[in-house]
């Protein structure tokens, strides 16, 4: 048996991957029953962002250049949710606005700000 074999997965693609939000500002994100999990998909077509905040649906645009990323014109539906979801939503939208860099390691995507501190961490989810 070869013990030097590492189980490192190839990196998931940034674009056209369903990214489920797992931590925001270092705190784990809990998906509550009857709510869509917080996630984003960066669609290649028209550099369109789609997803959900854990409360509302989210849409917008993004620009990627090498390891840099910028999100623009982010909008969300305006349904009121219980306080924990609203806090997650606020933090999630703030993280997207502040994000300037991205990195993918295996199935994990990290968005970070100007100080290189992770703002939000996502995990790739394969829907089929």
TrEMBL record:
InterPro entries for this protein: DUF306_Meta_HslJ (IPR005184), HslJ-like_sf (IPR038670), Hsp_HslJ-like (IPR053147)
Pfam families for the chain: META
Membrane-spanning intervals of the chain: none
Database matches in Gene3D superfamilies: 2.40.128.270
Residue span, DUF306 domain: 12-123
Top-rank lineage group of the source organism: Bacteria
Classification via PANTHER family: HEAT SHOCK PROTEIN HSLJ
Protein name according to UniProt: META domain-containing protein
Species of origin: Vreelandella sedimenti
């Amino acid at each position: 048996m070869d013990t030097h074999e590492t189980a490192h997965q190839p990196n998931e693609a940034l674009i056209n991957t369903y990214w489920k939000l797992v931590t925001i500002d270092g705190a784990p994100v809990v998906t509550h029953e009857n709510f869509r999990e917080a996630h984003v998909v960066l669609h290649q077509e028209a550099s369109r962002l789609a997803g959900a905040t854990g409360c509302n649906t989210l849409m917008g645009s993004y620009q990627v250049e090498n390891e840099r990323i910028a999100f623009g014109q982010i909008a969300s539906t305006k349904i009121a949710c219980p306080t924990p979801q609203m806090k997650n939503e606020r933090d999630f939208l703030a993280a997207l606005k502040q994000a300037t860099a991205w990195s993918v390691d295996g199935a994990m995507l990290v968005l970070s700000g100007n100080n290189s501190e992770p703002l939000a961490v996502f995990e790739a989810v394969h829907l089929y």
